[in-house]
Amino acid sequence: MSHPKDAPAVHPVPPAFAAQANLTRADYQRLYAESLRDPDGFWRQVATRLDWMRPPTQGKDTSFDREDFRIRWFADGELNASVECLDRHLAARGDRTALLFEPDDPAQPAQSVTYRDLHARVCRLGNALRNLGVARGDRVTIYLPMIPDAVVAMLACARIGAIHSVVFGGFSPNAIADRVADCGSKLVITADEGVRGGRRIPLKANVDAALRLPRSNSVETVLVVRHTGAAVDMQMPRDRWFDAVVEGQPDQCRPERMNAEDPLFILYTSGSTGKPKGVLHTTGGYLVYASYTHACVFDLKDDDVYWCTADVGWITGHSYIVYGPLANGATTLVFEGVPNHPDHSRFWQVVDKHRVTLFYTAPTAIRALMREGDGPVRATSRASLRVLGTVGEPINPEAWRWYHAVVGDGRCPVVDTWWQTETGGILITPLPGATDLKPGSATQPFFGVRPALVDADGRRLEGEAEGNLVLLDSWPGQMRTVHGDHQRFFDTYFSAYPGMYFTGDGARRDANGDYWITGRVDDVINVSGHRIGTAEVESALVSHPKVAEAAVVGFPHDIKGQGLYAYVTLVAGEPGSDALRDELVRHVRSEIGPIAAPDHLQWAPALPKTRSGKIMRRILRKIAENQPDQLGDTSTLADPSVVDALVKARRDAG
Ligand code: PRX
């Protein structure tokens, strides 16, 4: 890699930052060594940061081996996540701001919700849910915009021991129905509409369409938050206004005593095969891990204002907008809008308006804003910022440098945090007061985390190396199962390399032991930091009557990181037209959601296959990248002329 002369390859911890940091380099080295020497003792000590109803006497109880496979942490502890996030802060900091809400439209007033207010709102909804027959262990689907009620809904579920499944507001009715059916939700919480960048999203209408599908028949009740005030169909007695059911409810609500290993939530995520998996996280270990990583990675102080720009529909929103920050008694900002509305200064205007100190966003947003130049950033102060974070995909060094130099004025450490829906919290990351930074590297493992690199045969690679990233031991925030399919959990993550958790990512380790994540090595594509399974997009395409076969691969995209490139074989006699191409893209949008819409769709008279009928995606990727001279070994192709035709069509398309 080449660097411009004035761009250092390593950014040491600024001395002024180190002087005030919660954790210094020496702390990191000492605690990391301790966490590996005695993980049980280390995490039991960390677990005392929560106010357990019954403190655990057990710590780590895990094995990744097939014979005695188990993942349990603090297994005899009892707690309630909403109590950890709310009640325990009331005495000392009840009047402190828990949530800052910044609406999509900057002309609308911001809101500030104190811990006391949030507690009361959660209790009222918890009581209302109980009255509606929602009991401990029941599943509740949440399909809401980024508004305070989304946080209220999650915590109200946690309070009564219901398991929430938040579905991102960008998913289509079909995708909602899949997720409702998989976990058998009894109740859905939605809003009349969402608003993003001035555009309205018909959330209630999407839920209506989802619930018309027969597989969604577990749903008894739909609660509707009045957000924009738009007229919506209310189907009685199923649909109830949120306001009406919480009104008059007591502002105290008995929290369920949950076992540490009781489920807290299910969150669906894409894998390389089949339908999205319901990733299940439990209560005790998850909360210990989310809160501790949040405090350490962001160097959290009492007076910080913390803003993570993710949506609560993703794991980042769960762990680092809701559970981590609130368990820590922090102020967390909930932003309804988008980075470029009404203009490209919006993020930084919000930073100045609320005096945000800790800021966490995705590389795709940084790249999109970088393209607009420095002007929109320089027009704002950003003097409040202390730490900048990124998550979701590899950050290219140019974007890292721009974020550091322009957004942070060269003053704020940038923490590039690597983790996954499955991991519950951050696993590989710098600690801002402890770690020298390298643009593009997630650097070092967090406490207790044991990354390793293996080759395709599972042999450990030592020292400087590149290979598949695995984890050798458990950490408290690890997912516990795939909802309803424990075998799939084991097979997906623990069967490729026996005794290890396989991440699905590739990585390089440099001479200093710093990790550089190179991206997915499976058939998952990371589009703007969102995980899309090629299998899902292919099955959406094939569900169209005119499509015989489809193959989807990723290709490099300037803003999104990766885009989706679809090869489509039509049924015999069907001519490919521009109109049909548009129709197929629309079809995928309505089957899954706009995030899964292919960026390119190429007609393929046939797909390159091996003699045993396996699609050769490696070749399709090279054609998509317009690098036909790098197709590699094509000798196993059943019919090489198929490739020539695709290459020619790709070249003609430019
Ligand atoms: O490929 C890695 C990438 O995002 C994947 C996980 O996606 P998801 O479960 O949706 O969670 C995203 C938010 C935690 C990983 O397998 N990824 C995430 N963070 C990084 C990353 N790749 C490189 N660098 C990161 N910091």
Automatic annotation (TrEMBL):
InterPro entries: Ac_CoA_lig (IPR011904), ACAS_N (IPR032387), AMP-bd_C (IPR025110), AMP-bd_C_sf (IPR045851), AMP-binding_CS (IPR020845), AMP-dep_synth/lig_dom (IPR000873), ANL_N_sf (IPR042099). GO terms for molecular function: ligase activity. It catalyses: acetate + ATP + CoA = acetyl-CoA + AMP + diphosphate. It holds the Pfam family AMP-binding. ATP binds at residues 392-394, 416-421, 505, 520, 531. CoA binds at residues 196-199, 316, 340, 528, 589. It comes from the Bacteria. Residues 87-471 form the AMP-dependent synthetase/ligase domain. Residues 28-85 form the Acetyl-coenzyme A synthetase N-terminal domain. Acetylated. Deacetylation by the SIR2-homolog deacetylase activates the enzyme. The modification N6-acetyllysine is found at residue 614. Keywords: Acetylation, ATP-binding, Ligase, Magnesium, Metal-binding, Nucleotide-binding. Residues 536-614 form the AMP-binding enzyme C-terminal domain. Mg(2+) binds at residues 542, 544, 547. Its cofactor is Mg(2+). The keyword Transport does not apply. SUPFAM superfamilies: Acetyl-CoA synthetase-like. Its EC number is 6.2.1.1. Belongs to the ATP-dependent AMP-binding enzyme family. HAMAP family: Ac_CoA_synth. Catalyzes the conversion of acetate into acetyl-CoA (AcCoA), an essential intermediate at the junction of anabolic and catabolic pathways. AcsA undergoes a two-step reaction. In the first half reaction, AcsA combines acetate with ATP to form acetyl-adenylate (AcAMP) intermediate. In the second half reaction, it can then transfer the acetyl group from AcAMP to the sulfhydryl group of CoA, forming the product AcCoA. This is Acetyl-coenzyme A synthetase.
